[in-house]
Every structure is written in C-alpha cells, then in structure tokens.
Records
---
Amino acid sequence: MECVVLVAEGDFRTHASQREAVAGLLSGHFGHVVEIAHTESGAPFIPGFEGHISISHCGVAVAVAISTQPVGIDIEGHRYEKMRRIAHRFVPAETIDTDIDSATMLSATWCAKEAIYKFYHGEGVTSHVAVDFPGDKHNLTIEHTKNYTLAVACAR
C-alpha cells in the first residue's frame, strides 16, 4: 500500500469532534469501524493491522496517514502569530530569519518537523529536527490550502 492521506475539513475545535472525524475517516477507508489504540509513547495504531497510521488535527481539519511503512503527518491551521512567537523552540537560531520570513514558510517548517518527528516516533531526535527533502529514510510532501498546511513523511 502506498501512503494514503485522508483529510476532513470542518469545525474541529473540540476533542470529541476530532475523534469523531478520525473515526469517520478510518471507517470510510477500511469499510468498517476501526479501533484506535496507543503505544506507551502515545503513537496511535490499529490493533490487528500490520501497517502504520499517523493522526493530526487542528481547529479546521483532521488528517490521517495510513501506510504499510512508517509514516508521520501534521496539519496546522493558519496561526502565524503564535508560531512566530515560539519559533525559537523549533527553528535553529542560525536559520530562524529564513525559516520564518513568511507565514507559508513558517507553517511548512512547523508541519514538516512535526511530521518527521512522528515518522521517527521521536527516536534519535534530540533538539531541532532537520527538514530533509527527502531524507535518507523518508519522502516529505507539504501542501498549503487556504485553511491549513499539511505535511506527510512517508517511508521511501
């Protein structure tokens, strides 16, 4: 199976609406209700499914990536001012001026790093995650829409 990305747009400001949307995306894809469990580190998985999933949500959209290989996904609504205030936490000082010079670039950097972090389950990640296009083990895709930015890291 290639990496499958499912997205639902709407008003997802509550955890209940986010869980319901994820359940709807997964049941629509698999054709039946799907149980989601979590590892000790919090990574989601589907019991009995040999593949991998990654889930992300924001106030305006919910996204799920499904693959037979490791996968990481992140989706963020446009919240440039908040991202800019905390950019120093996820952008190295030496690249902060270029990585945050526009809302599009900052959103892409934020989402890419989160997707890559999830792809590697945080293992071997210490401080700043390098954004490799592609990396040694992953391909990275970034999409911008009028409502959100989406990044997906899938195994090569």
---
Amino acid sequence: MADSPTPKVLCVCTSNLCRSVGMQLFLARSWKGDAIVSSAGTYAMVGWAVPDLALKVMASEGLDASAYEPTQLTVAVVEEADLVLVAASENRAWIAQRMGTVPSNVFLLAEASALTVFAMRPQTSDRKERIRLAAAALDSARAQLTDVRHENLLDPNELNYEAHAEALRQCKKHLDAITAWVG
C-alpha cells in the first residue's frame, strides 16, 4: 500500500499567540510526520511574539514556541485542512461568517475531545489516513448527538502565569483524548 498523502490539521484561536500555538506544538509532537499541523488566528497578532508567560508554560511541557510567528486565518487555509480544531465558539463564528456555514471538519477542541467517546475510530492501519478521516468520523458522531460539550478554552492572553498554565492544561487534556482515539 502506498503512503497516504500527509493530512493537514489546523489549530485556531483568536490572536494565534497562546492556545492555538500550544495545540499545534502538542499535535506536531504527538503525530510527528503523520500530519502537517499549523495554526492561525482569527485576529492574529501578526508581527508579535509569543508572550513570555506562554513561552515559559509551553517550555515546562517541552514545547518551544520561541521562533513562532502568528498567522492570520484565511478561508483558503480552512478549506485546505482535513481537520480544524478551534479554541472558542467565536473562532467558529468567524469561520461561519466568512464561509456562510461551519464546514463539517471544524470542531471546538472540547467538542472533538468529547466526541471521541462516541465516534467510531477510522478503521485503517495507516495513521495518516486515520487523521484524514477523523473529521468525518467526529462529524458523524456529532450528527447523532445533541448534548455534546461546547466549552471554550480559557483565553490567557494578557493574564497571569496560572491562566496560561490552565489554558495549556485544557489543550493537553483534550488533545490527549483526540490523539489516543486516532492512535
């Protein structure tokens, strides 16, 4: 069997300085070369650097965001992604406003995490293909359920160290569920 093309996973938050960067770095580390993981912000702080508090919290998890540069989210980037994980409902609303709908591959991070309990894991031995098929499996479960968590991740921007640590803990908890489900 030929290798599957590498799936694209997009992580989204507002400023693309804290939550989505942490999500990107966690997933890139977990999935290694089996996915192209990127991040962007609905109102990205282009030209800014990741705040020192966020850098310290990420470093405590073995993540290095020191060279990261925020990227503005575009419709084209959403359209190219196989799976889009957003930090908050306002990020999903931004996508809906520009695209006229929320594409079936877009999930709140907490929602995707909760759906892994109910979704049928894609049945293939190729992890790249499981990542590519994850959105369809999660969307199928979403269509059958009416009571799925739609909680937002804490936005630690301009807050203290504890807020940054809590936001990264939330990201890690939900991403651990997703990566365990994908395998």
